[in-house]
Design brief:
Distance between the termini of chain B: 24 Å
Largest sheet of chain B: 8 strands, mixed
Mean pLDDT of chain B: 85
Radius of gyration of chain A: 20 Å
Shape of chain A: globular
Mean pLDDT of chain A: 88
Order of helices and strands of chain B: EHEHEEHEHEHHEHHEHEH
Oligomer: heterodimer
Low-confidence stretches of chain A: 267-286, 288-293
Helix content of chain B: 25-40%
Number of strands of chain B: 9
Chain lengths: 293, 299
């Protein structure tokens, strides 16, 4: 009879941190569940993180956009980025902290379920990458290629800072940054005909108040469509405002689209293990949302 | 085989008071149709001390953080005379707050409890809710219908600088204590679910139900005051079956209403208030256990 050595009592067990995931740690989700990867690109302070906080904060107040919160592996990360917007921060005015530059591609996670059907759940992974890394990507193809999640993204979002677009002096740079971002990622082969791209005009509350900005936005849309439409699978434009929070504009459309649509002509090998079920689920999910609204 | 339960709640959410009132009801048999104690366990000193305080309308005090007291009850259902041995570990709220949520660690003893749990009693105290109140939000949860406790000492201490601060010079750094209650509860459930080997049932107990100012059902209250937790439970109802209970184990404020509570009821069990989503309020504090363990369909 074999003798087994007495096992030492285990010490304290470490629990998951609840902080941002990496592409590697998120693979347990992407491999086994119907999931969406959303890459938010844009210069520093263009409103990427603020947009994400608005989505999370909406779910903290109830169901939103026909979806209900079903879980998150990054609750502590959400709470940390929302903290400067909360009364508990001791601030008198809300502020989104600038995302720190790291070599990682941090991901925030939400598991969302259709309000109309409990069997339709999707995991949404959204990048919270600093604007500096996208500025660096414009300057260097090597830096561009380090952002490997762009190639896998179900949605690639280019955020154009609405506040700077309202400024006569700064607007040209914003337009150029957006153009350069799309161009470098297309030329580096990170975006292709399977990519779903959205150009997001952030801080739409300010855009609405500024005269003559409509024509500028129309010009940007026409220029980007002309230059990039044929290189990507889909190119869309949308205006959003995360402030004022209670009357946020376009945030519901955004999360609805992110959950219900995937890459254009997604390759079979990219689909998770539950692919057959997953894709059917996704179709039903989209139908539910469409019919439900 | 004994049935392992875990009692989850942040500090001062009524977990131990509930267990004291439960012990009284199952031993006294004052409530018709309630679960009853089949036989006294050999060791019962801990729960007996608690129930004496509960009978005297005294606070049962804070649960020790040093060790986990296991309360074992062999309970019989009046519906079919089925008997189950049920273990309730009286875990301190500080363990959940400090060890699990702040420290992100789990002792081997806690890990073993979570791993084998079959059922969860999840406690929420409506007087101790920290909302996700935003600075730019008009009419945020800070002005909700639920009264806020003046005894949120730790939180008050953290927020104290902001009360007098007229400038942005002293922002309060983030820490887990500042996380809204609903997020903490979801995180606790997620972490425990990741350890637990079983599909478990969850009875959500909204304690101090006598303090809810406006009439509503327990699930309505949760949807309004802790919407993220409510959504999480609804979304995962395929994984965890769930039911909501509003419970006042004292039937009122034991500090303010002591003489009224003592005079009004000849039987201590009658001062207990239990609200469910359907039916009239009653005094049977065993209802969550009947639903969780005896799968009482009528309940």
């Amino acid at each position: 009879m074999e003798e087994t050595e007495p096992q030492e009592a285990p010490n304290e067990i470490e629990l998951p941190s609840g902080l941002e995931l990496t592409p590697e740690s998120a693979s347990t989700i992407t491999r086994s569940r119907l999931s969406r990867i959303i890459v938010l690109a844009g210069a520093s302070e263009s409103g990427k993180t603020t947009m994400l906080t608005a989505i999370y904060e909406k779910f903290c107040r109830g169901t939103f956009a026909g979806l209900r919160f079903a879980g998150s592996d990054t609750l502590w990360a959400w709470e940390q980025i929302c903290h400067p917007l909360r009364k508990s921060s001791g601030r008198s005015s809300p502020k989104t902290e600038r995302t720190k530059r790291t070599d990682e591609q941090p991901l925030l996670h939400l598991r969302l379920q259709s309000e109309l059907a409990v069997d339709q759940t999707v995991d949404v992974l959204m990048t919270d990458i600093s604007g500096e890394r996208f500025e660096a990507a414009i300057e260097s193809t090597d830096e561009c290629k380090k952002l490997t999640l762009v190639r896998r993204a179900d949605h690639f979002i280019v955020c154009l800072d609405g506040e700077r677009l309202c400024n006569d002096r700064l607007r040209h740079n914003v337009r150029a940054e957006g153009r350069a971002t799309l161009r470098v990622f297309i030329e580096a082969g990170m975006l292709d005909k399977a990519s779903s791209v959205m150009v997001l005009f952030t801080k739409a509350d300010l855009l609405r108040k500024t005269p003559n900005v409509d024509s500028l936005i129309s010009e940007i849309e026409a220029e980007y469509t002309d230059k990039f439409q044929s290189a990507v699978g889909a190119l869309r434009f949308q205006a959003v405002a995360a402030y004022p929070f209670q009357t946020a504009i376009g945030v519901d459309d955004l999360i609805r689209r992110w959950t219900s649509e995937t890459r254009v002509g997604r390759h079979v090998e990219e689909v998770p293990e539950t692919s057959t079920v997953g894709e059917r689920q996704m179709d039903r999910f989209r139908d539910t949302l469409t019919n439900g609204h | 085989m004994d049935i392992k339960n875990i009692v989850i709640g942040l500090p001062e959410t009524g977990k131990t008071t509930f267990l004291a009132a439960l012990w009284h009801v199952v031993t006294s048999r004052e409530i018709s149709g309630s679960l009853t104690l089949n036989e006294y366990p050999p060791e019962r000193g801990y729960i007996e001390k608690l129930v004496r305080k509960w009978l005297d309308l005294e606070s049962v005090g804070r649960t020790s953080q040093e060790s986990i007291n296991q309360i074992v009850m062999k309970l019989t259902s009046p519906a079919d005379n089925a008997t189950e041995e049920i273990v309730f570990p009286d875990v301190s709220g500080e363990l959940y707050r400090d060890e699990i949520l702040k420290g992100r660690i789990c002792s081997p003893a806690s890990y073993a409890l979570f791993q084998k749990a079959s059922n969860i009693l999840l406690f929420v105290n409506p007087n101790r809710i920290q909302g996700p109140d935003r600075i730019d939000e008009v009419g945020s949860k800070g002005s909700s219908s639920t009264p806020k406790s003046s005894s949120l000492a730790e939180l008050d201490a953290l927020l104290a600088p902001s009360a007098n601060a007229a400038t942005e010079s002293t922002p309060i750094p983030w820490e887990p204590d500042l996380v809204p209650t609903q997020v903490k509860m979801v995180e606790l459930l997620q972490l425990i679910a990741s350890i637990c080997e079983n599909k478990f049932g969850i009875a959500v107990v909204v304690s101090a139900w006598d303090r809810i100012p406006q009439p509503c059902t327990p699930s309505e209250w949760l949807r309004k005051e802790l919407p993220l937790l409510h959504q999480f439970l609804m979304a995962n109802s395929g994984e965890y079956r769930c039911k909501f209970f509003g419970v006042s184990a004292f039937g009122g404020d034991p500090e303010k209403d002591v003489s009224a509570l003592g005079r009004k009821h000849t039987r201590p069990s009658d001062r207990i208030i239990v609200h469910e989503d359907h039916g009239t309020p009653h005094h049977d504090i065993t209802a969550p256990i009947r639903w969780l363990i005896f799968k009482d369909a009528a309940n």
